[in-house]
Give the backbone structure.
Amino acid sequence: MESVSLPTLRRLPKYLMLLQSLEQQRVIYVSTTLIAHELGIEAIQVRKDLEVTGVVGKPKVGFVVSDLIQGIIRFLNWDNRREAFLIGVGALGSAILGYQGFREFGLDIIAGFDNDPRKIGKTIHGIEILDIVKLGNLIERMKVRLAVLTVPAAFAPEIAGIMIFSGIKAIWNFAPCHIKAREGVVIENVSLSQSLGVLTHRLSKMEQNYSEVI
Amino acid sequence: MESVSLPTLRRLPKYLMLLQSLEQQRVIYVSTTLIAHELGIEAIQVRKDLEVTGVVGKPKVGFVVSDLIQGIIRFLNWDNRREAFLIGVGALGSAILGYQGFREFGLDIIAGFDNDPRKIGKTIHGIEILDIVKLGNLIERMKVRLAVLTVPAAFAPEIAGIMIFSGIKAIWNFAPCHIKAREGVVIENVSLSQSLGVLTHRLSKMEQNYSEVI
């Protein structure tokens, strides 16, 4: 089985969003040329990316929108609910617990964990918060494989270690620290500070250039 | 003034995090070799990236940690507070309003906007929520240049249009829809679904391979 490139994987949800909005507008067929134009991606790239889904277009008319939607969802495995634990129920962790949107992507957070006695035993957005000391044991017993990590940076490596030891296979890491990939474990680091850094630097650079022109 | 590459810009906050944790451990000097090793980046790349800050290392001992921290913060313009509006006070928007961490990066959200009458006039985490119909006017009058966009995808392009027309120069877009870059406007799209897609696909692939082995 051929491995799919990271850029292709990242573009698939983009195609999905566009296709879903086309479906809402009751569009039946779509060409790669249109997708390419809408998203500012080369048509040949779109064609190559969509090949991985196994969905085949029809000559002259293109793809059936709903087929392509199903194909991408299947490929990303978003048609299967997947149980996950969330660790670190601070501002961001609470927000993620309350955000129903991720369920569309198959993410089913079944419990939160924290070390704060004021949070343990409480229910946030219908999800129970458990004591973090139980984390390793519950990962083993409940065979949870996916974790959302929203703890402060200082705690992240240690907790990642405990989780991986207990059987976690995929970590969605929001902690502002890079967790290194390991054999047999998938880690996706989301760094909001990196993204904001790009923005603030470019904005200030643009303003400098502007004042130089004046 | 030479333009800095996007990958370099994205790595700078990573260096910063590492350096801040070294500073907490009272480390005074750091070599590019150590940074490279800790972050799994080539040493020659680290050296090139850090050059943009203008901070110069000392032969044999390397960089003074605190100098490098200041250099990166200055370069990313995180030493200047920057006023911003947040648009869309849902689950994610509220979380961002409540998250003090972004202040470290110079982001100072001074008002939130929403179209929900139950939210307008309220204060969330000390920040007032205003009626979205006032958005364009207030951008002009208060000369706000930075916006955090956390509305549903369907509203994002229209609101982005209004904001840019009124004078917004940089948009940090969390809406699950791609907003195209325009002349004189910086847009940074944060797509959580793209990130989650990488994770769920790879996890399911790994599990398939595992069961094939058995």
Observations:
- The longest helix of chain A spans residues 192-213.
- Chain A touches chain B through 68 residues (CB under 8 Å).
